[in-house]
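thought: fold this chain, then report.
action: predict
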Amino acid sequence: MATTTATQTLIIGGGIVGATLALKLAQQQQKVTLIDARPELTKEQWQQKLLQRDARVFALSIASIELLKQVGAWQLIAQSGRKADYTQMQVWQQDGKGELNFGDEYVPQLLGSMVEPFVIEHALYQRMAAEDVSEYLTLVAGHKVTLLDWLGSQQGYQVHLDNGDKLQGKLLIGADGRGSLVRREAGIGLDTLDYNQTAICCAIKTQQPHRATARQLMLPTGTLALLPLADVTEDDKANPQHWQSVVWSLPRNRALELLQLNEEDDDTLRRELAAASQYALGDIEQLESIASFPLNAQQAKHYVKENLVLVGDAAHGVHPLAGQGLNLGMLDVAALVEELMTDYERSGGRCWGELATLRRYERARRPHNSVMMHSFSLMNWLFAGDFAALRPVQQIRSEGMYQVGKIKPLMRFFTQKASGL
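observation:
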């Protein structure tokens, strides 16, 4: 029998951003319901997933790690051992001099940590069951949203699920990814930029260890990132720091060609990757978990409407060359919770999710996300494509990297910005 349930806040999308936001609000003793279309996993199913290595990895900034600590998830991730901290980052280009080195090899300092997506999700979902938040947080898993009804500014939204149930909340938050249903149903437009590139993603074992260093090579065809992965098996731990996640951006036709050739000869991609990386860590000994996805950037024309707000990929998506997509979403979470709680406390608990509150969040986050999105697009444009191949552009780019790399205060500034602090 269909039921109707009222709550303070509804979050659609149970990924990392949505789950972190739900936990953060529950910690503030705010009633929140998190709706995730995916079925809830059993303990045994989680354990089965954790036995496998995921080629995908998120480069968590210091700010994102701090937020995960606040909700109690980072402690669980650390206990699991499924993270690869990095203390240095190296960026160089194939056709020019100069390179950028972030971090100090003599005095190692944490720049961030590489963690597989399901490892983060597992920690977040473990936290949802904890006594300090379970009283305020309700998880509705395994059901899709079919319809959104706005009931007016005082009542907010009514959400219809595929099982006939209805949920009502004063504030509706869309954390449901790039193809956001919430954004579409709210009639919020989208600005998009297609890079005509495809990213090939896989896990590789290199001849030499990564030594807690994230590497990014700027190629004329796109960027090639080598990102440290946690050691999973006992063999890995006996010979640590050899597994890495690869994100290789290529012109779409070239990427599809490589994937097709690899189907015919499963050694093709390994050889091509090793050569493209300039054998920075020697030969590639193993390769697994190959996947690919098209590259584009997008930004919602607005982040908010009456009783509704977008966060994470539902609001913005960027090129993966700097690994900042999830980090921008986590900064959205911190900013939104701060604005919501400020007005809630000022009003003595009467105001929640007012349009003026949501607009302050939008003013804080949308310009920043726009700058980041266009900066990554500019970097991609300067290093890949026909324009980047022009000799004057190569010379300016090469000299620029060389000079920037020598200015230590500027490098420290870039490092601080990348940390999200």
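thought: worth noting. The chain has 14 helices and 19 strands.
final: tokens above.
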